[in-house]
Amino acid sequence: AWLGKNENKKAAQEAFRKRAQINSLACRGQYVQSGKNDAAATQSLFTASYTY
């Protein structure tokens, strides 16, 4: 959302706020998905055979 551009700052902050709110609900088992998702929210973070 931000891409390092000042004109995107407000949109990036709003996207961060939404994700923080959703994460807060999810960690308490209270999140119910509704509405549309942005592209980043639908991408999987899974990496096959990943080890630390």
From TrEMBL:
Lyase as UniProt keyword: yes
GO molecular function ontology, one term from the record: fructose-bisphosphate aldolase activity
Keywords for the protein's UniProt record, in alphabetical order: Glycolysis, Lyase
Example GO BP: glycolytic process
Organism domain of life: Eukaryota
Pathway membership: Carbohydrate degradation; glycolysis; D-glyceraldehyde 3-phosphate and glycerone phosphate from D-glucose: step 4/4
Principal EC category: lyase
A Pfam entry, by short name: Glycolytic
Known EC number: 4.1.2.13
Family: Belongs to the class I fructose-bisphosphate aldolase family.
Protein name stated in the entry: fructose-bisphosphate aldolase
